[in-house]
């Protein structure tokens, strides 16, 4: 499942005015996403090695890294 879908679900919950759904989706993001990222990154390091490690240095796991120029 794409991590980009979760914020959309939370926004949908706000749009339909469902606080229950907002809380469930926020909890899902806080609990599930770090676990998913951990296992996915282990797999990507195994598959791509140093190329993926270089990519990790340039890119944020959830939010883009802001670079100083």
Concise synopsis of the structure shown:
By secondary structure, this protein is an all-alpha fold. 72% of the residues lie in helices and 0% in strands.
Write the layout of secondary structure elements.
Layout lengths: L4 H11 L3 H30 L1 H9 L11
Descriptive notes:
The chain crosses the membrane at residues 6-39. With 69 residues, this protein is mostly helical. The chain has one domain (5-58). Helix content is 72%, strand content 0%. The protein has helices at 5-15, 19-48, 50-58. The longest helix is centred in the middle third of the chain and has 30 residues, at 19-48. The chain is elongated and about 45 Å long.
Summary tags:
69 residues; elongated; mainly alpha; 3 helices
Structural class: mainly alpha
Mean pLDDT: 82
Proportion in helices: over 70%
Give the amount of beta strand, in percent.
Answer: under 5%
Organism: marine sediment metagenome
Protein name: Steroid 5-alpha reductase C-terminal domain-containing protein
Keywords: Membrane, Transmembrane, Transmembrane helix
Transmembrane segments: 6-39
